[in-house]
Amino acid sequence: METLKGAHIYLRALEPEDIHFLYAIENDEHLWELSSTQIPYSRYILEQYLENSHRDLYEVKQLRLVISNYQHKAIGLIDLFDFDFQNSHAGVGILIREPGDRRQGFGKEALQLLVNYSFNHLNLHQLYCNITEGNQASMNLFTNQGFEVVGVKKDWLFSNKVYKNEYLLQLINK
Asked: Locate the N-acetyltransferase domain: which residues (predicted)?
């Protein structure tokens, strides 16, 4: 699908061979704050997740896509979650795994592709994201793509023995 192809990356469905990539991400404690994860995932659970990843977006209310470069290396994940067909909105989450792949424009390109897909193919009216206080890279990524801060959830997340605020951002398809 051409709508999911950019100049430097493309978005694709999860494949069985992504098990190692998923396992590394889901069990990296440094990334748990981003996904509100508290426990590691077994390979077995992730294999079951992969087996069911083909299920319809309207049924499971989420879509996880792999961000891949044109050397076919998985470099990250981008998600639509809490898909709400009735109200025409969904949440967005993005992760670039390796620090060396960050700040290269891959996240920006992936977000642009997903926004375009969400508005033009899924006919969503709006997207939202939640960004933890102090995550300036994500704040810059989303605000530079037109997402607006519309609220703050005070002391929302408890991480490293401290409460952090979480910002709610929205992008409305005009």
From this structure: 9-169
